[in-house]
Amino acid sequence: MFKPEPFLTRLAFTASDRPEAQEACEALIARYGQASRTEAQAIVALGGDGFMLETLHDNLSGDRPIYGMNRGSVGFLMNEYSEDALLERINAAERAVIHPLSMTAIDADRREHRAVAINEVSLLRQTRQTAKLRISIDGKVRLGELSCDGALVSTPAGSTAYNLSAHGPIIPLDARVLALTPISAFRPRRWRGALLAHTARVKFEIMEADKRPVSAVADNFEVRDVVEVHIAEDREMALHMLFDAGRSLEERVLAEQFSV
Questions:
Q1: 128 with 151, same domain?
Q2: What are the two backbone dihedrals, phi and then psi, of residue 136, each rounded to the nearest 5 degrees?
Q3: For 72-104, how does the pLDDT look when each residue is reduced to its tens digit (9 = 90+)?
Q4: Which residues lie closer than 8 Å to 233 by C-beta, 6 or more apart?
Q5: What is the largest CA-CA distance in the chain?
Q6: Active site includes 49?
Q7: 1 assigned to some structural domain
Q8: Which of 76, 119, 125, 178 could potentially form a cystine with 131 if both were Cys, beta carbons 3.0 to 4.6 Å apart?
Q9: How many domains does the chain have?
Q10: CA pseudo-torsion sign 183, 188, 190, 193
Q11: What is the CATH number of the domain that holds 69?
Q12: Which of 49, 138, 210, 244 is catalytic?
């Protein structure tokens, strides 16, 4: 469990394989030094949002905060890049606590696959034919048949990612809800999804799975030919991200709702 320290000075830098990220990493290490992962008080991730997700997945213990700087193509989860006053920025930063989703996917051979999703768990059709899903919430069937390209369950932190592209709602970080969003729903055509309590346990059953195969994806972990998928928030797992003062993740999520 992460415990705040009086002043963070020991940093561990990590970077994506993009040339600009690698160059930034070398420059920052030369200026601030490189602590080992066991000694570091904070991790500095250099890259884009995809690399930030990778870094979070590599540090699921949540025992040290992660401060990202944008050296990639998308930087919603990242701070602006600057080599100056890095220790001061990190120590003045605002903290965001992320609770990821746990996924248990059962494939056609009845094998269980478990994974963690910081953004979302997505169910996606594998062929030209639409997927048919039965959706249950807390043990009660709420939608007997959804014909669609897929569906997803998103955390508040992930609500501005794939969920938003699928026309799902943007969720404030402290709202304590999850978004259940269809992807290109065909029947019922007007169903736009639901907001669920963060304690909800979601179950997807794949109908006609042999004819209409579906894959389940937890961030970047994919299981193909699933027949059943269970999703719930893991409140025992807490990941800590650092954002520059005045540019908190809460502020970014709010501002995104007014962007045009």
A1: yes
A2: -120, 145
A3: 887 788 999 999 999 999 999 999 999 999 999
A4: 99, 100, 101, 102, 155, 178, 198, 199
A5: 59
A6: yes
A7: no
A8: 125
A9: 2
A10: negative
A11: 3.40.50.10330
A12: 49
